[in-house]
Amino acid sequence: MGKVVVRIKAANWSDIELLALGQTTRPPRFVEAEALVDTGATGLYLKSSVIGQLGLRQIGERTALTMSNRRETRRLFAPVELEIQGRNTQYQVTELPDDLPNIVGQIPLESMDWVIDMTGRKLIGNPEHGGELLHEEF
């Protein structure tokens, strides 16, 4: 099948909020990096070094079952604004060690209406929506 790697831009959501509220004039901290697209993962997973560059605040922990069937405690961080190919969403971050890739999972992909084109090994707009961004709501 092959893997799909995309360029992401992550910005510190707390910085965005403070700027919008007029409580700072400092531009939001952001990082541009590569990330592996993994529909077997659910969330957004960033390396420790990326989290440090963004200055994210830890908001909790969760126990994860890894692919090697090991239980690990992973730290959760405040949300970022995640941008992929011009579309964005806000999503909380789970920390990964620096020896693993950044990972974008299924839920952030769905919120931006991206699907994987495995033949082209890239993300495309959802064909069910004519490739255009469309949020299905009830």
Q: Give, in order, the helices and strands.
A: EHEEHEEEEHEE
Mean pLDDT: 93
What is the CATH topology descriptor?
Cathepsin D, subunit A, domain 1
- Rg over alpha carbons: 16 Å
- Gap from first CA to last CA: 34 Å
Can you say what the CATH homologous superfamily is? Acid Proteases
Helix/strand/pairing category:
alpha+beta
- Judging from the principal axes of the Cα atoms, what is the shape? globular
| CATH domain class name | Mainly Beta
* Tally of separate domains: 1
Number of helices: 3
Ranges with pLDDT <50 over ≥5 residues? Answer: none
CATH architecture: Beta Barrel
Largest sheet: 6 strands, mixed, barrel
What is the helix fraction of residues, given as a range? 10-25%
Strand content: over 45%
Would you write up a description of this structure?
This protein has 138 residues and is an alpha+beta fold. It has one domain: Cathepsin D, subunit A, domain 1 (Beta Barrel), CATH 2.40.70.10. The chain is 15% helix and 46% strand. It is built from three helices and nine strands. It has helices at 13-20, 48-54, 106-111; strands at 4-12, 30-37, 44-47, 58-65, 71-84, 87-96, 103-104, 114-117, 122-125. The strands form two sheets. It has a six-stranded mixed beta barrel. Strands 8-9 form a two-stranded antiparallel sheet. A hairpin with a 4-residue loop joins β8 and β9. The longest helix has 8 residues, at 13-20. The model has no long low-confidence stretch (mean pLDDT 93).
